[in-house]
Amino acid sequence: MEETTIGLTQTARIPQQRGEQLLDSAVRYAEERHWDVFPGTWLEAVEGAERCSCGDTACPLPGAHPVRPDWENLATGSAVGARRLWSAQPRASILLPTGRAFDALEVPESAGFLALARLERMNLPLGPVTCTPDRRMLFFVLPGAAVKAPHLVRTLGWMPSTIDLVARGEGHYVAAPPTRIGGHGAVQWARRPTPANRWLPDADDLISPLAYACGREAAAERTRRGPGR
Length: 229
Known about the structure:
Strand content: 15-25%
Shape: globular
Oligomer: single chain
Largest sheet: 5 strands, antiparallel
Mean pLDDT: 89
């Protein structure tokens, strides 16, 4: 699967998210990875600015959230179904429901790259990994991770509430490349889907490096804030 690259934003005009890229990517995710996909909102040009198609000027995820509350019923694992959905709205973001083919472990980008380097040195199995424009990284793992992640973190000596590690499972979703989020940029692959990572790792294999990296990030943040803050 080819990695999508996004051009630089120009101040004179709003960059366009090519509908054919979104449609083709959604079809590939369904056809090649057997991931369920569903279309979300999209970005529209309004008075020289990018705004979410939902119409909320304060939308926290402009162009990258479900269109309606029953979004889980829209998800399809069919390439034909994906082509039909994105043909109806070519600019729609690509959203992937978690808790089905995979769960996702989400961490700050700095912690994610630290953990990624450690995982590679240890030659541990890795699945696809995304980077988001708001500097987050999501590691795709086997379903069930969201349920057991808090327990795994505790067994490592961390309190889940003290480190920035979020597990997304049933009832949640992630945005997939080349979805753009507001004017911030696009979701991109840090480790793109390939035949080599078709079989996803278990959360047990990744949780220690991820929790350690998040713990270091939390400690560094406390140091920056200083005592009493």
